[in-house]
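Let us begin with a simple case.
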Amino acid sequence: MIITSASGSVTSSVVSLQTPPHIEVFNGTNFITNGETIPVNFGSVQPNTNGLTVTFMVTNTGSEALNLEEIEVPADYTLNANYPATIAALSNGTFSVQLNTTNVGVSPATFTSPITIPPSPATR
């Protein structure tokens, strides 16, 4: 911002607004709101074979880094351990969840249990 006074002197200052990390989660292009129940289809797989994997995108729309702590998935699903520990401001990262197919009839092909993403610091 530039301000010119009547005497002709110029003063400039920069205004910077810091916003805390803000998490948004997507399954493909579908935005998932906090606490929302949206079934995720893992398709059909034969028992004792590699289950299908679904990738989720986590976006940080804040101006500070988002630190992801341990993401939790229900039993009968496996979390890909290579998800980012930190997502920079205005950036994104991904994590994947795989259906385990060792127990016949135990795991539903449509994922209906919660995934918990405890971010730190607290997000809005």
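The second case is a distinct protein. As before, the sequence precedes its structure tokens.
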Amino acid sequence: MRKGIIICLSLVLVGFCGIAFALPPAPTQFFATPISGTEVRLEWKTPGTASPVKLDAKFKMNGSVTTLTWAGITPDNITGEPAPVANTTQSKLVSGLVKATNYCFGIRYQDSTGLSPIAQACTTTLNTGAQVTLAWDANTETNLAGYRLYLGNAPRTYNRTIDVGLGTAYTTIVYAGETVYYTLTAYNTNKLESGFSNEVKYPQ
């Protein structure tokens, strides 16, 4: 009788240890400040790690203070977000809003590992006010890059900054009972900024 040879094959399962990639952290110190009836200034601080590759921003009209889900924020992305720079305070002016309306804003970072948690801030746009147009003479420097307008509610105390580019006029809104002080600086392509101009206020 011929003996058979039995070969037993054992299947060895080899486990692969997955590499855990850290998702980008959410922006911190995220604030939404109404500038006028149609504008809100967003400000946040980026993480101190390597810069994420993209920043997304959205807003929800008539939003509440409840936690936003990214898919539920409409309309679509706010455009023109600044490129993230690590450990830096950055800002974005959102225009075209409706006066005296509540908005909730959400921002998050995205890089090759995924998406950060959402940072959220809510505010209400201001009601109607007086339009104040500021105008100035253009600088003649060949390396001029733009102007920054500084605003505040006390002399030489400014809590708002608007980059107005290379224009020589800008219109703001001043509301009833409010006094606003203005000054201007110029900055060049080397990112050097001048001192403050003379200060003006409205109402005079």
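Confidence is low (pLDDT under 50) at residues 6-17. Residues 130-202 form a domain with the Immunoglobulin-like fold (CATH 2.60.40.10).
Keep these points in mind for the review questions at the end of the chapter.
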